[in-house]
Design goal:
Elements: H1 3-18, H2 24-40, E1 47-53, E2 61-64, H3 67-77, E3 84-88
Antiparallel strand pairs: 1-2, 1-3
Helix pairs in contact: 1-2
Pfam family, one: DUF7854
InterPro entries: DUF7854 (IPR057176)
Length: about 90
């Protein structure tokens, strides 16, 4: 999914929410799904990686060209990352 498609999907979900035909939980689910699809189908040299470990990093997803770069990105984003691993998001 490209960026424009992701933005259109989010805009449609917001419009339906504003019209009252979609609940907040449905909106959150659809926006989260759109963002997850965008991140995991990212085109180019980057790939999505999910951090697993302490509460500060667990579940954090970053885009990076390698596992090493993903670990560095997580450390840059979280002040006290502690011990963690990163795995490719499929």
């Amino acid at each position: 999914m490209d960026r424009i498609s992701a933005l259109r999907n989010i805009e449609e979900a917001l419009a339906e929410f504003e019209a009252g035909s979609r609940s907040l939980s449905d909106l959150e689910r659809d926006v989260r799904g759109t963002l997850r699809t965008y991140a995991t189908e990212f085109e180019g040299d980057l790939q999505a990686y999910r951090a697993n470990g302490g509460a500060a990093v667990d579940g954090l997803v970053v885009l990076a060209p390698s596992e090493t770069a993903a670990r560095e990105r997580v450390r840059d984003l979280v002040a006290d990352a502690g011990e963690f691993t990163v795995t490719v998001v499929e």
